[in-house]
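Narrative of activities, Objective 1.

The group set out to show that a structural description can be obtained from nothing but a protein's sequence at a throughput compatible with the screening campaign. Below is one input-output pair from the validation batch, recorded exactly as produced.
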Amino acid sequence: MISAQNLQQRLSGNKLAFSFLLAAGIILLVSCSTKKPVLITPEDTDKTAVAEDSNVRDTGYPPMDTVQWNEIDLSDDYENVIEELAMNKKESYSVKLFFPFEKDNNKLSDVNQSETKLGRMAQYYAGVLLALEQLENEGVNLDVEVLDAESGNFDLKLQSMKDADVIIGPRNTDQLAVVADFGKVNEIVVVSPWKSGSRISNGNPFFVQLKTGLVEHYEKMVRHALDNHELEHIVLLGRKQKADVNYMRLIQSIASGYLSSDSRKPLRELFVDEDSLITGETAFDSIFIEEDTNCFILPHWSFSADEDFVYNVARKMSGEKGVTDVVLYGMPILFESDKIRFELFRSLNMRIVRSSYVDRNSPGVKEFRQKYFGEYNDFPVDEAYEAYDMMLFIGRSLERFGLSFPHYLDREITPMLQTHYDIRRIYDDTENDDFEDIDYFQNQHLFILSFEDDRFIAR
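Output recorded for this entry:
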C-alpha cells in the first residue's frame, strides 16, 4: 500500500495532508496492486479518508429560486478596478478541500463500486489526484489539505482554515453558506464545485460557483426553443401543483423578456393529469399538429419529486404522437434517469440542457481514460472528469492570476474535458455596477444535448 505520507512524497509540489480525524479512523489509500482507491482501517489514525453522499441526481440543482439577478457586461469602471487589483502571486498556494462524507451510512466495500455514493466520491478523489499530478508537471505548487465536512467538529475545522488561500466545498448547502460567509469575512476565495444558488451568499466577491443555476438552465432551454421553433407550436408542460405553476410562471417570464412581449404568458400551456398518463386512454392526442413540428418544454428536474412524472410524460407522448414530429426540451433528469431509454430519446428528438457532457470520442477524453485506467485499473465515471476539470481550473487560475483570480476569469471561456468554464460576475439588484456590488461569481456555460444518429451531440 502507498500511504498518504508516501503519496505526499510522490506529489512533492502538491502536498496532500489528510486531516479528517474520523471517529472510526478510516483512511483513503491507493492500492499498489489495483491502483484503485480503497478504504482500510489504518494504524495511524492521524491520517484520514475521503467519502461522501454523492447523489448528484437529487442535489445537482437547488429548489427553484424566484429571485432574479442582472448580468452586467464588462464596464470601463470595473476594468479599471481589476487592473489596479494586485494579483498577489505566491510561490505556493494553500488549498483546503471540504469533502462530504456519510460515515454511518456508507459501507467500506462500496468504495470500488462506482454506482454507490462512496464509489462516486472515490472516483472524484481520484480525479483530484490526477489533476494535482498534472499541475505539478506544469510547475504549479499547491499545498492541498482534504478534510471531511460531515464528521467531527465542522466549526473547529473551519476556524483552522484562516490561513487558506482557497477553500473548495463543502457540498451541504447549510455548511456551504457558513463557509462562504467565512471566506467573505476573512477574504478567502471559496469555490463551490457541487452547489449553486443565488441565496447561498450575497454581496460576496470571494464566492465562486462552478455549477450553473436553475434559472440559467431555463433561459438556455427557452431561448433555444424560440430560436428554432414557431412560437405557436411551443407548449409548456406541467401539473396543477404549486411547484409546477412556479416553474411555468418563471419560464413564461423568461420567454416574455426574450420576445420583448407584453404578454405574461407568450407560450401555450398544458396541464397534464398524472392519472391520464398511467390509466387514461390519451393525454396528448388533441394537441399534436400533424403538418408541423410540435415542441414541448418539460421544466422538471428533481428525481425525488419528478422522475416518475417525467418518465410517464415521455412514454405517453411517444406512444400517442404517431408519425407527428415532436421535439421535447427538458432538464438533466431526462439524460440521467435510468427509466428513460434510447427509444424515447430517438422518438421525441430530445433536447436536454446540461452543464456537462463527456464526449468519449474526444482526443482529450480518450487520453484521460487511458491515464486513469493506467493509474487505477478502472475506467472513470463522470465524477472523475468533473474533479479533474475543477482542480486543474483552480490550480491554473491561481498560477496565472494569483489570489485575485476570480476577477480575471470572465476574460475568456475555458474548455475542459466535460464542461466549459464561462465565469461571470453576478451583481446584486441595484442601479450600480460598481466593484463592491458583486454578489458572487458563477459559471454560465450550458450545453444543449441533442440525440442524433443514436448518440448525443453537445452544442
